[in-house]
Amino acid sequence: GPIGIPIVNDERYNASWSEDNLLELNKGWIKKGNSLEDIAGQIDVNPKVLKATVERWNELCQNGQDDDHKRPPKTMMPIAKPPFYVMEAWPIVNNTQGGPEHDVEQRVLDPMKNPIPRLYVAGEISSIYGHLYLEAGNITECFVTGKIAGQNAARETSWS
User: Fold this and answer.
1) CATH, domain range 22-87
2) Which of 37, 60, 64, 134 has the largest count of CB atoms under 10 Å?
3) In this predicted structure, which of 18-27, 112-121, 147-156 has the lowest mean pLDDT?
4) Cα 55 to Cα 14: distance, rounded to the nearest angstrom
5) DSSP bridge partners of 33
6) pLDDT, tens digit, for every residue of 95-130?
7) C-alpha to C-alpha distance for 153 and 122, rounded to whole angstroms
């Protein structure tokens, strides 16, 4: 199956994969080889390094414990029988930077810098860093701004 499926709220982006990944193989997103040397050539990797890496991985699988990267044992499977498949994969982080201007009480401000009644903002969209990204800083910011916005919203007088 696919490595991961991004969630995008836009119908123009189809994140689905074919059931058997054959379409992705035919598009060249996934490479197939009958030997490690074949795969190494397709992805421009030194075949000796790839072979040593796979041997190390298989050793870890046989031992039932990933001492190198702490991967959970139930997700470990040896790389032993061709054909072999590879694809480029990398982590991505979607992050909102900017957002509506707000005050210290997390109230959204109108263009004249006046709080808009009953409108609060929290999390990444209320980042104090503006259009910069402070790596791993948004988690704490989400908790703090969420608490501030939530407490202030809870103090509002009910409309009913």
Assistant:
1) 3.90.700.10
2) 60
3) 18-27
4) 37
5) 84
6) 666 778 899 999 999 999 999 999 999 887 777 666
7) 11
